[in-house]
Design brief:
By secondary structure, the protein is mostly helical. The chain has one domain (5-143). Helices cover 71% and strands 0% of the residues. Helix 2 runs antiparallel to helix 3, helix 2 (32-65) packs across helix 5 (130-144) and helix 3 runs antiparallel to helix 4 (101-127). The radius of gyration is 16 Å and the shape is elongated.
Length: 164
């Protein structure tokens, strides 16, 4: 199903985070010497976009979804994911990750995003009418206004090398 235009800002941010996940996956195996650079990039991505994104989902999107009882369990699962992912972002900020933690983190973040896109957003588009989606989109737009509007640029060590 095509994404309703009211939900596109969330989906664009999902694409940014998925790009990070793909880059981590393609960089495997990541040398221990490069782990700090990856952690710095993960930390920067959280600070510039994901922290605001999670807050918008938790204050606007998830309460809207809870109006439909069938989505309660999914919202509970997504909130649990947010807690686990915040721990991962905190680990990157504290520079506590090792090279083996990076692909696990990326897989977890990717799975979470796909769950939101394929299950939550799809189902909301089926359950909500056009006016409800528009109203939700306006609230999300306001909640997301403090997020950076540009992608995080890879640093020298996290940039994909030719031939990889």
């Amino acid at each position: 199903m095509l994404r309703d235009k009211s939900l596109i800002p969330l989906s664009h941010q999902h694409q940014h985070a998925l790009a990070l996940c793909v880059r981590i996956d393609r960089a495997q195996p990541i040398p221990e010497a490069d782990v700090e650079a990856w952690q710095e990039e993960i930390e920067r991505h959280f600070a510039q976009e994901i922290a605001v994104h999670f807050s918008a989902e938790e204050s606007v999107l998830f309460p809207a979804a809870r109006r439909y009882g069938e989505l309660d369990l999914l919202v509970d699962n997504l909130l649990t994911d947010h807690a686990v992912l915040r721990e991962g972002f905190a680990g990157a900020q504290a520079r506590n990750m090792c090279s083996g933690d990076l692909p696990v983190f990326a897989q977890r973040l990717s799975a979470h995003i796909r769950k939101e896109e394929r299950e939550l957003l799809e189902r909301l588009q089926q359950l909500m009418n056009a006016d409800e989606l528009r109203a939700l989109g306006k609230k999300l737009e306001e909640a997301l206004k403090d997020a950076e509007q540009s992608c995080v640029v890879p640093n020298e060590k996290t940039r994909r090398k030719p031939g990889k």
